[in-house]
Structures are given as structure tokens and as C-alpha cells.
Amino acid sequence: MTDLREPETGAPGLTVSDLTIRYGDTEAVRGVSVQVRPDETVAVVGPSGCGKSSTLRAVAGLTPVAGGAIGLGGRDITHLDPARRGVGLVPQDYAVFPHMSVAGNIAYGLRARRLPADRRRRRVAEMLELTRLTELAGRRPGQLSGGQRQRVALARALAVEPDVLLLDEPLAALDPQLRGGLRRELSAMLSSSGCATLIVTHDQREALSLGTRIALMREGTLVQFGTPRELWEDPADAFVADFLAGAVLLEAERSPDGAAVLDGRWRIPAEDLGTGPTGHGRTRLLLRDDSLTVTDRDDGAAVTARVVHAEFVGDAVRLTVDAHGHVFGVRVPPDARIGRSVSLAVVPGRATLLVPAP
Amino acid sequence: MTDLREPETGAPGLTVSDLTIRYGDTEAVRGVSVQVRPDETVAVVGPSGCGKSSTLRAVAGLTPVAGGAIGLGGRDITHLDPARRGVGLVPQDYAVFPHMSVAGNIAYGLRARRLPADRRRRRVAEMLELTRLTELAGRRPGQLSGGQRQRVALARALAVEPDVLLLDEPLAALDPQLRGGLRRELSAMLSSSGCATLIVTHDQREALSLGTRIALMREGTLVQFGTPRELWEDPADAFVADFLAGAVLLEAERSPDGAAVLDGRWRIPAEDLGTGPTGHGRTRLLLRDDSLTVTDRDDGAAVTARVVHAEFVGDAVRLTVDAHGHVFGVRVPPDARIGRSVSLAVVPGRATLLVPAP
Amino acid sequence: MAPGTARVRLRTPPPWTAALPALAVIGLFSAYPVAVLVGNSLGLGSAPADGGPTLEHYADALASASVRESLAASALVAGVAVLATLVIAVPVVLHQARQDRAGAGGASTDALLTLPIALPGIIIGFFAIVLNGRTGLLAPLWEGFAGLAYTLPGLLVAYVYFSLPRVLGPLRAAAAGLPHSLTESARTLGASKARVLATVTLPLLLPALIETGGTAAAIALGGYGTVATLSEGIRLLPLDVANALTTGYRLAASSTLAVLLAAMAVAALVLGRGLGRLVGRAVAS
Amino acid sequence: MAPGTARVRLRTPPPWTAALPALAVIGLFSAYPVAVLVGNSLGLGSAPADGGPTLEHYADALASASVRESLAASALVAGVAVLATLVIAVPVVLHQARQDRAGAGGASTDALLTLPIALPGIIIGFFAIVLNGRTGLLAPLWEGFAGLAYTLPGLLVAYVYFSLPRVLGPLRAAAAGLPHSLTESARTLGASKARVLATVTLPLLLPALIETGGTAAAIALGGYGTVATLSEGIRLLPLDVANALTTGYRLAASSTLAVLLAAMAVAALVLGRGLGRLVGRAVAS
């Protein structure tokens, strides 16, 4: 309200500009800006309590906005009644109306909009087709599986041809064993619906696989917003690297013969390092699970680390090691003999030095 | 009860022999045999409804046994009162007594056993130390985090020096983001307690990392029981391969120049294949996510598959493909151009032909 | 300890043994006195006055105009009062559910609203007299208020007040049990607040409304204190029962009236529960 | 539609405006009559008989031996009856909770057990007379049964029966809410069933026992029907209130008794709730 900048709410798709949400005295969301273009799926991801669900609820009009603006399809909907926003919401529990059939659920929004009966029936049939529920049209939700209920909620939300589809933790309520298959199914239905979509999730795998762009939030603020590859290959900070890929991001100093990290206690030769451009200013070294290996060398190119823990992960043993206060994951072959401390070196080509563009 | 074989309940540790559990007319568990040696952690894993929790509850004496025998520390406990079994149970919700302090919880079993006050205090102090709860000894459970509550339940169960520790889905109630760290913490505490442990979980990663042996159950029966590497490298059947590693197991025919799979429609040259011994009788080909690659070759060494789905998984795109009715996962570089069908070949050395020992 | 004595008794016993303690409580406190009462009303009592099985006591009772009037008045007062109570209670509990979600702790409001459950029926009758008795406090405002307490509208108001705190608790639990995401989803689908109320909230609340209404009607039917205080006016069934008992100790006749009253109350309760469950199944399956 | 009229009113309004509808219901149906009643009892009534603020009506009431006796008997009957009810109810609800878990649907047992909630107090008094009145059915068995209904033990039994169905519902919900894993864990830790009951089940059930007991005591205190039927014997406070009302219309004196009765009932309810919450906080924090 006190924001003097003109919020950009005129673009097509969804535009969230400088959104702030307060619950009592606590700011749940602070100055978050996210855009969802038509035909695009943006995944808002972050640990629990990061404000991602509040952001989605604000877009749906279910949570009051303390500052900033929300635009949808060129209209400013910041303070519009939820019934007039033109959003399609699929809540975490799917909220399928238990006292209506599958077809009745899908028709709900169309009845509320007083669509003529014949057009309503046609639209419901289309939605049943899209979500492969035609044979279940007469069933009550009580007789459906979790995945089927999700599809009913999706069909119901899509039936009203919303300007944006909002999915709140779409897979969290489902059996973990089935989640992978249902994620692929959901992804296929979303892309065939062709609707701008905002997905909220705490699971980085879901975000990577469902989002054409990812908005990563932490403690109410937006940390990074970009394509999955941008976030994967050039994380804004150590939190993003860790959250998304379990990777470690170290401050590095580049020299002609390589890079120095851990305050110069570890010098990595240039020939072992890949390099990549970063848009985040500083030179940093990105290490993933498979970037390091245990070595016998004990020169400056290796660093000594204490083994904190070792666990079998199937094709490898994953060591958790501590080197000068930084904790890394290292994969070693399952039959490797590991003592209480190890020498670590970079696997050539597997570690990336992120270098600011000149 | 009608089983004529002598159940082996005399061994140290836990011995479950030919266990059958019925709920009304349905057999929840059928003829399951599992042994847990002292100092060993066995993980019972399987999809929901496979009977793994019923097995644990039968060992604790909380579910009646319809057939078979349960031995613990050389005693037959099949029908013993739960209070006299000498098991330490950590239920899925931790079941920390809300009206007692942390120390009071840990002392509960010692009081029930009428341990003298001084020995009780000493034991409680030991357990507080082991689970790093000493500073929280006076707290009420309502003031604890999920991970701390888990440690209270663990300390309480270990305090009575049980012959076996039973953990029911120990990490399922915790925040997904914290689960990895707490798994490592739990693993460390279990190994320092030195108590025979039976863990029930639905998560294959937990089973692989926590179990010295894994018992994989499906629909009430035991499918395979062995070390994580045995199950990983020589799965008993396609279900085990899929459940544990998302891998595919194909019937294969071995010839001097390689192996033929998919009814001879795909011939893989011998030089591309690793081989391993199998204890499960038939020759089979084990394919993991990273066993296949997309190729331009279109000879007999490649197989054509339809692309069902593609999803970004960070460092790669994971294709779900369908070849002659078999569904595989294939990882390709994130920038690969993929059409509607692909030719697949084995990455040399990454696929294993399991050959029965002669 | 001999082997076997420590065996777990976990095998499921036949249902009737498991239900034994509960059934004993029922038998001791319900079934037997009810049977005796019904027996009395059918002329099977052991008192020398009763001479064998007959329906004549029921015929007598139903032939009496005053009993028929009381029956009708009781049914009317209980039914209409409970309906009015539900109409008042629904917005209150929906409002409370909203407050709860917003975390705007309505604990004190809640306590105040259900406090009157402690007020005896006799006090509520007293309220009515104080306010609307023949020389009631409101009489100077409008002469219609004088003596209103003894009329049908007066009784209705008194019984609404009697039923309200009894209805708020269960209804509040039912309203709190409705997932808020249902109404939120309905709103985002384009339904107005009124439409959401009519198509989602009320249909899903209906089973609880019916069951709670039945129970409240049963309790209102049997509530003696209020009507006893207001006994100068319209007569309800409990008054007749008490009368039959005090004016000459005629066991069979008074048993008959008691059975009629109990049967009406139990019918209201059972009907409410049965219908509530039925509607619940239709609504939520 | 003009811009702005469709704005969502989601900003949290000040608490008092949000509580308005609920407060209106309270005011209309509770606060005002209570205030009037209290005013009357303090001599502030508008009737010409009342002459300004005074505590003399309370002094008179408490000086009367019969009122003092009624007060004591009421408190004793309500308190002891509710305690006895809880003692009977706890094993029943624990048994029901076990049944529920085993899926041995106790729906019909459940229905039978709470059905007597529909039985009016007046009918329950009637039961007592039929069974244990001066010429009651049980009198031939043992002469002590004759007239027992009018004695303290007889009243206690009648009030236990009156309270039981009112207590079973809430207690059952509380018992069902106790995680079964708590008792299971306690058992595997080596505690006998009795020890688990004493150290886990009962302590965790205690807040619900206290709150339910308080509410049941409040309702028992005000229950007029039962004692009215048995009015030949021990006198309880509701009888005095009714008497003061009928024998000569003395507003201030009868208001005083009514306030005393209402205050006792409300005190029982509030004490039960407050203490229950307090113990609950001590138990579960």
C-alpha cells in the first residue's frame, strides 16, 4: 500500500509484484516478484514455512495482501473477490466436494457461472476426457483413489478456463510409491491443458521436473527465479545449491593455474576444473556428490577431511565428510576401504568453477 | 499352529519363523521368516500394505500370531505378554508420554521393572548422554522438535536394555528436508547402542542406508532377505529391482557373443555387458537408469523405444521409454534433442548380465 | 508363573462377551425400568389395582382431550423451538469456525455461549416470568408482553434459550470438522458466499444438524423445569405425567403417560440419529 | 460493478466487531435475564415490593435451615452422583475405544448406551418410584427397598442414571483421542495393564474427566424433573426455587434462590472447565 512503484499488472499471464503478506506482526512474505507467462509452469519451491503457500493463497485471494500487486491476464486482481479472479485452485487435500459426483464436481464452477446446460455438459465431457475420468463420471469421491481425486480437482479447476492454475503441493497427499508415476501423469496433463500454472512444492525433484521455471523461496523472500538449468548450474547461493542438488558452493579465488578454496588451504589445478559463467558476481566452486573422490595424493591439490558418516546408497557408499568446517558428500565405490579421515580430490571435469562474466 | 516344523526360536537375537498373521479372513502376513543377529540392524521394507508393520507388531506382542513362532534371546516369545518380551518399541508417532518430562519418559520402563532409584538415575543419565538429550532432561515433550522426540522414544526403549529394538517408520513423521540428517544421526546412535534392531520402512533409501540386512516384503510374503549389496546386485525378481533401485530386470538368453532380451528382438554384444553371479536360477539382464544411452546406431544391438515422458532431474533429463511393452528409464544429457522415439543401446560396462552359478 | 498364564489374550472373542460390561450398564440402568414401566402401562403391574394385559390405559389417555392437547403442544414446542435454535446456531458456529481458523481465539466467547447449559430449566422458566410474566419487566413496554411467558410464543422463546447452549457444542464440532479448503475451492470456482453456503456448507452440515436437532428435541420434550415454572399457561406432556403421579397414586395411568413421553423423546433422538446417519451417507459417500 | 465494491474484506477487523453476532446471541439470551434476576435478588427489582439495594434476601435465604439443608443436599447429590457416574463410565468408554480399534463396531451398543439421554428427568424419578417407592416393585425383595427412592441413596442412584448418558458421549470422544501407541509403548516397556491404566491412561484422561464431570454436575444440580417426582423425600434446591415461586409470588425472595441455584450450577461448569484446562495444560505440555 505504501509502495510507490507502479506495479506491473498489465502483462498477460500472472504477475506478482513485490508481494508482502503479514499475519499479525510477522511478515510471512516480503517483496516477492514472480511472473508466470501463459503456457508456462512456474514451480515455487522452498522448505516448510518459507511463504510459498501464502504466496499461492494470495494469488487465489484467500489471504490478504499487505503490499505489492497481483495481476492476471492484464487485470489488477490484488484486492478482487476470489470468485471473480479467474484462477483455478487445486488445494493440497484436493477439496473434492464429497456430496457431488465426479461430474457434479467438475460442473460446479460452470453452474456458478450460469453456463447453459448444454454447454456445461459439453465442457464437463471434455474435462472428463482430458483427465481420463469419463468412466468414473458418476462416482462419488469417497470411492476414488488419491490420484483420481487429484484428477477431479484438476478437471474442476480447468473447467472454468482459468487464467492461471494454482496447485498447492499436488503430490504430497499421495502414497510415496506412486508419486513418481503420478508426477509424470500430472506433468502430461498440465502440458496438454496449455494453461499458465503455478505449483507450490517443498520437493526439489518435483520442482525440477514440473517447472519450466523455478522460484526458490526462503524465509519469506525470493532467493532465485529462473529455469531449472539456471538454478542447477548457477545457484545464487549455497542455500540454493544445497536445497536443489545437495551440492556445496564454496567461495573461490581464481588464479592462472587453478582455484583456491577454503581460504587457500585447498588448491585445485585448472586442468581438473570445468568452468561456467555466473550471474551472481563472485567466483565460487560448485561441488556435487560426484565431484569429489578419495585419493592417495597428499599434495596441495587434495584436502584432508574427517569422515562423519558413511551410508550405503545402492551403487555407492555416500560419505559425509567435514573439511575445515564445511560438510561435503562424497560417493565412493561400495567396496572402498575408508578410514576415519580421507584425502579428497576433484574428479577431473566434475567440479565447476563459476566465474563472473567479464 | 498347524505348522509341524520345529520353529527355531533358540538362537540369540530375534528369530521370526514362518510367521502368519490374520485379520479376520485376510492373511496380512504369510510364512515370513527373518532373523536379526545381535549387533545387527535388519530393515524390513516394502510398499504400504505389504505386512511389514504387522510383522513388527507381532514381534512386540501387539498383534496376535496365527501361525509360526517368534524367538528372542533364546526364549520362545510367540504368545508372551508384551510386558515380558524384552523388546524396545519406537512407534511411528514416537508415543512419547506427554505428561512426563524427558527424563520421566526414559525412566518409565525402569520404574515398571522396579529398578532401585539410584540405578535408575544412573541408567537415565546414560541414555540422556547417548541420545544427547541431557540438557533437555527436564523438558516436556510438547516443547521438543520431532527429531528430539524421536530421540526420547529411542532412549526410553533402549533404557530397559531390550533384546531387540523395534523401529516403526522412524523417519516418516519428520520434515522431509531434515530426514537425511536425522537418518545419519539415527544410524550413528543405533550403531553405538549395539542392540539388535528391526526397522520397518517404506523408503528404499532408508532401508539401504540403515540396514545391515534388508528383508523386502510384498503382499504379506518375504520376497528377498539379504545384505543391501546382495539385493542391489542380484535382485530376486523384477519387483525387487524396481522397488530398490528403479531398475529393470529382463529375462535374457546368453550366447557366446552376448545376450538376447525382449524375446530375441534385442541382442546386446558381449563386450558391452558386465556379468555377475545370481542365486536366483535364471539368466537375466539388470538395467539401471544409467545403463542405457540414446544412440544413432540402428543395428540389432540397439532397440527402438517410444518416448513416454521426459523430465528434468537436474544434471540430466530422465526419459521414460517403452520398448516392446517394457518401460525403462534412460538418462540423457539435459541438452540432448529427443524425438518421439529413440534408439537405445547399452552403455558399455553399465548393464549387468546375471548368470546362474554353474 | 506357569507357562500359558502369561499368554496374550489377543484372539478376538465373540462380540457378545466383548460387549458385556457395556450391556450390563444398559440393563441395570435402562432396560429393566423401561420394561417395568411398559409392563405397568399395559396393566401387567404387580399392584393389586392392575388386572392383567390390557391396552385400556392407552385408550383412556388418548381419549382424554387434555392429554391429546398436551401431546400436540409438546411436539409443537419441541419441534419449532429446536428448528429456531438451529437457525440461530448455524451462523454462530460458522462464525466461530472462521474465528478459529483466523486464530482469533474465541475461547471466551465460546465459554459464554455454552455457559447457559448450566442454567437449570427451572431458572429459564423463571427468566420468562421475570421478563414476560403477568407483571413482568417488559410488560410496561408493550402490553402484549404481559403474560406472554404463559403462551405458545413465550414457551417457544424459553425453549429456544434452553436448547441453544445444548446445540452449539456439537454443531461447533461439526462446523470445525468441515475442511475449509472446500469452501475456499468453491469460492475460487466463482461461487458467491451465499451460493457456497447453500451448495457446500449447509449440505455438508446437514447430517450434524439433523442429529443434533433430534437430540435437542428429545431433551426439550422431557424438560420439566421450564414448563413447571410456567405451569399456569399452556400444558405440556411432562406436566401431565407429574400430575398423574401426584394427584392420586394410580400406577398404570401414570405409567402410560410416562411411556408416551419417553417414547416421544426416544423417537426424536433415534429419528435424528438415524436420519442424520442416512443423510450423512448420502452426502459424504 | 464499480471498482472497489468487489474488494475482498480480508483485513483482520478489530476483535469486538468479529465477535458481534455471537455476543448478540449471548446478550439476548443470557446476560440480560441474568442481570435482571441478580438485580431482583438484590432488591433492585421494579416491583413496588422491592425497596432498593440490599443483601437482606440473601441473608434471609441462608438463615433458613431448610434452604441450607437443600443447598447441602443438592451439592452432595450432584457431586457424589457425578463421581459415581465417572467411575462407571471410564471402563465403559475404555472398552468402547478398544472395540473401535478392533473394528468390532460398537455402533448399536453405543446407541443403546446414550439413548437414555432422551429420558426426561421426570421419567427417571418415576423409575425410582416404580422400583423403590413405598409400594415399589423391589419392596417385597427386601424391605429396605421400600421408600429407598426418597432417601439420599435412592436420589443418588437416580441421578447417576440421569448423568450417565450425558457423560458417556464426551468421555468416549476423549478416550478415542488418546493415541493407542501410548499404552502399547508402555506395555512393551514392561508395565502391567493396571500400571498402564494408572500411569498413562487415567492421567491423560483426567482433564476430560474433570471438565465432563463439571458439566454433568451443573446439569444434575439444576435437574428438576427427577427431584420433583421424588419431592416427598429429601429436598433439593430446585424444589425450593419452584416453591418460592408458586407459594406466593415474592419476586425478590424467589430470585435470590434462583440466583443461588444458577450460581452453583454455573460454578460447577466453570470450575470443571477451568480446572480441566489447567490440568490438561499440566498433563500435556
TrEMBL record, chains A, B:
Q: Which domain of life is it from?
A: Bacteria
PROSITE patterns, A to Z: ABC_TRANSPORTER_1, ABC_TRANSPORTER_2
Keywords, A to Z, come to: ATP-binding, Cell membrane, Ion transport, Iron, Iron transport, Membrane, Nucleotide-binding, Transport
- One family name in Pfam for this protein: ABC_tran
Q: Which residues form the ABC transporter domain?
A: 14-244
A molecular function GO annotation: ATP binding
This protein's record includes keyword Transport: yes
Under the heading InterPro entries, the entry gives: AAA+_ATPase, ABC_SmlMolc_Importer, ABC_transporter-like_ATP-bd, ABC_transporter-like_CS, ABC_transpr_FbpC, Mo/tungstate-bd_C_term_dom, P-loop_NTPase, Transp-assoc_OB_typ2
Q: What is this protein called?
A: ABC transporter ATP-binding protein
Q: Which organism is it from?
A: Nocardiopsis tropica
Taxonomic placement: Bacteria, Bacillati, Actinomycetota, Actinomycetes, Streptosporangiales
